[in-house]
């Protein structure tokens, strides 16, 4: 029987408690997973940290007993896919705003866009790869997947 090659070179998923101290743990976990992808490792780590922080700040994940789920998949074709899943019920929405050097903070999603090949948010019920251009209803309060793609030259 012929061995079939998997299209995945990395597939990992983990839940983190929804507290600020876990942002560091998320970065360390991501760093350990993507270190072999040295051309995008720092970018993936930084974007994961930003998405995690936004989940705490803007969703029910930051409430007591909240959680944030993080997934990473690397494809043999040279794409690394990051997902951060929040618990929904956003009280405020994380939106990309015009860059204002005088405003503290607020640059994270601009950086995510600059560091990744693309990023977006879709309801957790929608496949992020298929629902990239699916508009989210304004009254949707369920869990959201914030995703980013990174192109890498590294093949494992």
UniProtKB/TrEMBL annotation:
Q: Which CDD domains match?
A: HATPase_RsbW-like
Superkingdom to which the source organism belongs: Bacteria
Q: Where is the Histidine kinase/HSP90-like ATPase domain?
A: 20-116
Q: Which InterPro entries does the UniProt entry name for this protein?
A: Anti-sigma-factor_SerPK, HATPase_C_sf, HATPase_dom
Q: Which UniProt keywords apply?
A: ATP-binding, Kinase, Nucleotide-binding, Serine/threonine-protein kinase, Transferase
Q: Which residue spans adopt a coiled-coil conformation according to this UniProt entry?
A: none
The reply on keyword Kinase is yes
Q: Where is the signal peptide, in residue numbers?
A: none
- Keyword ATP-binding applies: yes
Per the record, a Pfam family?
HATPase_c_2
Q: State any single GO MF term.
A: protein serine/threonine kinase activity
Specify the protein name: ATP-binding protein
């Amino acid at each position: 029987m012929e061995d079939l090659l998997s299209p995945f070179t990395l597939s990992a998923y983990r839940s983190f408690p929804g507290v600020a101290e876990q942002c560091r743990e998320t970065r360390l976990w991501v760093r350990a997973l993507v270190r072999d992808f040295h051309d995008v490792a720092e970018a993936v780590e930084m974007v994961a940290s930003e998405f995690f922080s936004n989940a705490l700040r803007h969703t029910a994940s930051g409430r007591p007993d909240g959680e944030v789920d993080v997934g990473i998949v690397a494809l043999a074709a040279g794409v690394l896919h990051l997902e951060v899943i929040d618990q929904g019920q956003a009280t405020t929405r994380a939106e990309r705003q015009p860059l204002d050097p005088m405003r503290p903070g607020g640059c994270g999603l601009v950086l995510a866009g600059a560091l990744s090949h693309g990023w977006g948010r879709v309801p957790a019920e929608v496949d992020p790869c298929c629902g990239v251009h699916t508009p989210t209803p304004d009254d949707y309060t369920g869990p959201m997947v914030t995703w980013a793609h990174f192109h890498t030259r590294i093949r494992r």
